[in-house]
């Protein structure tokens, strides 16, 4: 991910999981310091300063969705067939989204 990249902001730890808005990368990847903090719930004992294992980026909000776009709604939209997020067994982290799928999700969220 590079500074200026536009992203879909996805809430994965909620029911139902959903896309809540559009954001922009404002700081490129750097080691996730929480992985090296033993008091953090994200602590990874295998992460070291030499091999951080986890990377984070900073993002800034651009625009909230007028209507959240839920995972079930995306799965029910045949126009999103092939979207990585919807693949069986897919685990969300950072995934590419085609321009076509991005535009469809924006419309589903009431942004166009």
Structure characterization notes:
The model has no long low-confidence stretch (mean pLDDT 93). This protein has a 3-stranded antiparallel beta sheet. The protein has 2 helices and 3 strands, in the order βββαα. It has 112 residues and is of the alpha+beta class. It has helices at 71-75, 99-108; strands at 6-11, 18-31, 55-70.
Entry keywords:
alpha+beta; about 15% helix; 2 helices; three-stranded antiparallel β-sheet; ph1033 like fold
How are the SSEs placed, and which strands pair?
Layout: E1 6-11, E2 18-31, E3 55-70, H1 71-75, H2 99-108
Antiparallel strand pairs: 1-2, 2-3
* Global morphology: globular
Structural class: alpha+beta
How many DSSP E strands?
3
CATH superfamily: ph1033 like domains
The CATH topology is what? ph1033 like fold
Distance between the termini: 25 Å
Mean pLDDT: 93
Indicate the CATH architecture: Roll
The SSE string, one letter per element, is EEEHH
Report the radius of gyration as a whole number of Å: 16 Å
